[in-house]
Design a protein that fits this description.
Oligomer: single chain
Helix content: 25-40%
Bound molecules: pyridoxal-5'-phosphate
Order of helices and strands: HHEHHEHEHEHEHEHEEHHHEEHEEEH
Radius of gyration: 21 Å
Strand order of the largest sheet: 2-8-7-6-5-3-4
Shape: globular
């Protein structure tokens, strides 16, 4: 098996240069390696509270029908989302995670010879989705570290990269892994000035956490801008990362194009039922957001106290500057049973992305950081 098979050089040009997505290390993998049972995972921006009881009972009901194909049109969930946004259901596209929707957008609009724009340090799925199509990725420089929004999107730099080849601009608000976010006026101005034939995709995966002062809910602008696409997910505040369900809201014409390229049954029936129940469980989301705010504050303060640089964040994670090769911190924390996320693949070799957890998990992370820091720096 040592030699590269002959067909390898015939893979699609975009695919040949791709680096696969690097997921956070699974808890049970680390527990197996260390022979322990209580590893703490703060590496994938999941909701640490677990699914709500309403979701669990919806899943129990739905699982009785898994011999049937799911509703490929996602009727009930689309209806519920349409009501929520006060838009027709034709504006909603469901995906196997919002990752799926991002890939569908790339498949529907990008070909070799076209281009897409995103920021340096932006969510890595944009790069994967764009490159797989063979389109050109135009990566705008991010704000410098000393900027008021350090490492965040520089919208002027992004706008300057748009030309007649450009089909999509990807904006993460807030962005992962930087935690940076864009204010209402700046983002609104960008959407207004973007050419109407270029899609502006605003990824609001962390909207529930970020909502508040000077944070735009771009779904409110959809009726004004036919080229605006907003993506959301049930993976974060709604606590359904393992089920894989997210969606886009857009002009019906965009949704119609995405509907042509999506797999007929891209969202499974259990996920649809769970998402419907999760959407109705406003208390769970509210409590999750409140718990996150408390733990985010503790996490940031504790890391600063330990001498790390912490970037401002409106999400459920922080980006910490270790001031050294972050791989050393990562490896050391792993040995203590704590999983965080190194982000060298985002061009940030000195940084770690650390998700909020339950109070005890944040305690564990912070006490471990205090215990090992002398051995690293
Ligand atoms: C986690 C995340 C998503 C959501 O991914 P899913 O496929 O919906 O689980 C989308 N965008 C960003 C920026 C994220 O961090």
């Amino acid at each position: 098996m040592g030699r590269r098979a002959a067909f390898m050089q015939r893979a699609a040009a975009g695919v040949a240069g791709l680096q696969p997505y690097q997921p956070g290390k699974p808890v049970d993998e680390l527990e197996r390696e260390l022979g322990i049972a209580n590893a703490v995972k703060l590496a994938s921006n999941e909701n640490p509270r677990g699914p709500s009881s309403r979701v669990l009972s919806a899943i129990a009901d739905a699982q009785r029908e898994i011999n049937r194909y799911p509703d490929g049109a996602g009727f009930h969930l689309k209806q519920a989302l349409a009501e929520r946004f006060d838009l027709p259901p034709e504006c909603v596209t469901l995906g196997n995670g919002s990752n799926d929707v991002l890939v569908l957008l790339a498949e529907a609009f990008l070909t070799p010879g076209t281009s897409a724009v995103y920021s340096r340090h932006a969510f890595v799925v944009y790069a994967l989705a764009v490159q797989a199509t063979g389109a050109q990725a135009r990566v705008a420089p991010a704000n410098p570290p000393e900027h008021a929004r350090p490492l965040g999107h520089d919208l002027a730099a992004m706008g300057a990269l748009i030309d007649t080849s450009t089909r999509i601009v990807f904006i993460a608000n807030p962005n992962n892994p930087t935690g940076s976010w864009l204010g209402s006026d700046a983002l609104r101005e960008f959407v207004e000035s973007a050419p109407p034939e270029v899609l502006v995709v605003v990824d609001e995966a962390y909207l529930e956490y970020a909502a508040g002062e000077d944070y735009p809910d771009c779904s409110e602008w959809l009726s004004e801008f036919p080229n605006l696409v907003v993506t959301r997910t049930f993976s974060k505040a709604y606590g359904l990362a393992g089920l894989r369900i997210g969606y886009a809201i857009s002009h019906p014409d965009v949704a119609e194009l995405l509907n042509r390229v999506r797999q007929p049954f891209n969202v499974n029936s259990v996920a649809q039922a769970a998402a419907l129940a999760a959407l109705e469980d406003a208390d769970y989301v509210r409590e999750s957001v409140r718990a996150n705010a408390t733990q985010l504050h503790r996490l940031a303060a504790g890391l600063k106290e330990a001498g790390l640089g912490v970037l401002p964040s409106r999400a459920n994670f922080v980006l910490a500057d270790t001031g050294t090769d972050a791989e050393r911190w990562y490896a050391r924390l792993l040995r203590e049973g704590v999983i965080v996320r190194p982000v060298a693949n985002y061009g940030l070799p000195n940084h770690l992305r650390i998700s909020t957890g339950l109070p005890g998990e944040v305690d564990e992370l912070l006490s471990t950081v205090q215990r090992v820091r002398g051995q690293i720096a």
